[in-house]
Amino acid sequence: MNSNAAQFEEIKLLEEKLSTGSIPPELQKKAKALVERLLRISQSASFTQEYDSVSRYLDWVISLPWDKKSPDNLSLENAKKVLDSNHYGLDKIKERILEYIAVVNLKSNQQSNSQKAPALLFIGLVGTGKTTMAYSIAETLGRKFGRIPMGGMGDALQLRGRSRSYPDAEPGQIVKVLRRVGTKNPVILLDEIDRVTDEAKADIMGVLVELLDPEQNSNFLDHFIDFPIDLSEVLFIATANNTPGIATAVLDRLEVMELPSYSDQEKTIIGKNYLLPRAVSATGLKLSDISFGEDVWPQIVRPLGFDAGMRTLDRTINGICRKIAKLKIEGKATAVNLTAQNLKEYLPTW
C-alpha cells in the first residue's frame, strides 16, 4: 500500500470514529472540518504531525459522556441505610443529603430539568471523615465518583486544560474525570481546595467559581476541548481543613458543612462498630479470632494525646489485626482476647 492510500485509510478511520460518537452537532461540525483539512494537506510533509494532533483531539471528544447519565437512586430509605452503615453521627450532613434526594424526587415527578446539583464544602480537621463522606454520597445516589487532588496544585490550567496550539496540550482534570467515570452527572470531589499554591491561588479560585456557580457551570470551557461542557448535573463536593485559604467568591458558591472532632466516646463506638469489622475483613481474620476488652479501648483511642480524627485509631486497629493474623498463620494463636494487661504485645511499633 503506497503512502497516499495509507493516509486516506487513516482519514477514513477518523471519519468512522466521528460517525459512531455521540457528540453535540456544533462540535461534530467542527470535528468534521478538522478531518476535511487533513484531506487537503494529505500530500504535505506536515500531515503526520497534524494527523496525530487531530486523532488525539477526536479521541477525547468522542470519549466524553455528552449525553450519558447514571440513573439516581432516589430512595430515602436506601440513602439513610448507606449513610448510617458508613458513618456514625454527622446527622446534619446526612439530613442535608436526604433533603437533596427528596427535592430531586419531587422534581423528577414533575418532569422538571431545572434542578441544579448543590455544591458542598466539608470543613474539618484531618481524619474527621470528609473524603469518606463524599464517597458515601456517591454510593447513596448510585453515581460514579471522581476525585481531583487540589493540594499543591500550582496552575489553573491543570483544571482548565491547555490549548491545542501548544505541543504538550492536554485536557484539564475536570475533563479527565468525566472521561474516566463515563457519565455527565458524577460526584466530583475537589479535595483540599485550601491548599493550592499561593502563586496560582487567584487563577485557580477563578476557575473554581466557574465550576461551582450554577449559573456558569452549564457552559464550562476546557481550553483543549474548546467547546462548552455542561457540568450543571455534576455534584461537586469540596473539602478543606479551614476557610482562610479559600477565596470569598468561592465560599459564596458553596454550602459549608463542618465535620466536628470526635470525642473519646464517639471514637470507641466507631472503633467497635466500623473500624474493627473492616480491619478484620481486610486482614483475612474472622470476628471470632479477636475480641477487645472494654478496658482496652481507652488506651488505643488516645495513645499519644488528643487526635481530632480517626486515622491514628484506624492504623492502630489495623496493626493489631495484622499481628494477630501473623500469629494465626504461625500457629501461635487461634483466638486472641485483648486486655489492658496484654495490649502492649499486640500494639504496632514503628
UniProtKB/TrEMBL annotation:
Q: Which organism is it from?
A: Candidatus Curtissbacteria bacterium RIFCSPHIGHO2_01_FULL_41_11
State the Pfam families in the record: AAA (PF00004), Lon_lid (PF22667)
InterPro entries with a match to the protein in the record: AAA+_ATPase, ATPase_AAA_core, Lon_lid, Lon_Prtase, P-loop_NTPase
Q: List, for all copies, the residue spans of the domain called AAA+ ATPase.
A: 116-261
Q: Name one GO biological process term.
A: chaperone-mediated protein complex assembly
Mind listing the GO molecular function terms for this protein? ATP binding; ATP hydrolysis activity; ATP-dependent peptidase activity; serine-type endopeptidase activity; single-stranded DNA binding
Q: What is this protein called?
A: AAA+ ATPase domain-containing protein
